[in-house]
Amino acid sequence: MTNWRVLLLGGASGSGKSALSYPVARARGAALVEVDDLVVALQSLTTADRQPALHYWLGHSDRSMSPDQVLDAQVALARALAPALEAVIANHLDTDLPLVLEGDYLLPEFCAKWTGGDVRSVFVHEPDPEQLQRNYAQREPEAGAQRKRALDSAHYGDWLAAEAVRHDLPVITARPWSDALDRLAVAIA
């Protein structure tokens, strides 16, 4: 699993990206950057007037939004974030420091531009809203049942997986967990 310097690990919320990214980063001795942390950092340095897509979720709730509207907002945020992601990737390639970059806001269209040579991209897909809801309950038990979030995440995940295939990027399912790291290693190779 060492034939890369930057690994881009995308997928919808709750799909299993973090469960895979942490052991991969440890095994490779790579830095791990969660894209959500970059979003928070950029939100603190920008305003909603200047970067509305980056600030969208701070002022809106998904409660009355359709899955397609949530998807559109996610994609808009991801596209606004692209210059920051490019800078992080370029820095790690220039400094020869391995990196695992994981998050919901990695779009296949973005990853396809970087994939090849020292950069690998893989998308993790969990199509089952019931499983996503269980994943959220395990990760965030205090939040209660998150049925709408799981449905929206499954919709976004289906879109990401289809786009990844369209861009010739590998897609893996996180389940079964027992061999997920092995399947990730094959996808990276």
Topology of this protein?
Layout: E1 6-11, H1 17-28, E2 31-34, H2 35-45, H3 52-59, H4 67-95, E3 99-103, H5 108-114, E4 119-125, H6 129-139, H7 147-166, E5 171-173, H8 180-188
Parallel strand pairs: 1-3, 1-4, 2-3, 4-5
What does this structure look like?
The protein has 189 residues and is an alpha/beta fold. The protein has one domain: 3-Layer(aba) Sandwich (Rossmann fold). The protein is 57% helix and 13% strand. It contains 8 helices and 5 strands. The chain has helices at 17-28, 35-45, 52-59, 67-95, 108-114, 129-139, 147-166, 180-188; strands spanning 6-11, 31-34, 99-103, 119-125, 171-173. Strands 2-3-1-4-5 form a 5-stranded parallel beta sheet, sandwiched between helices. The longest helix is centred in the middle third of the chain and has 29 residues, at 67-95. The radius of gyration is 16 Å and the shape is globular. It starts with 5 loop residues before the first strand and ends with a helix.
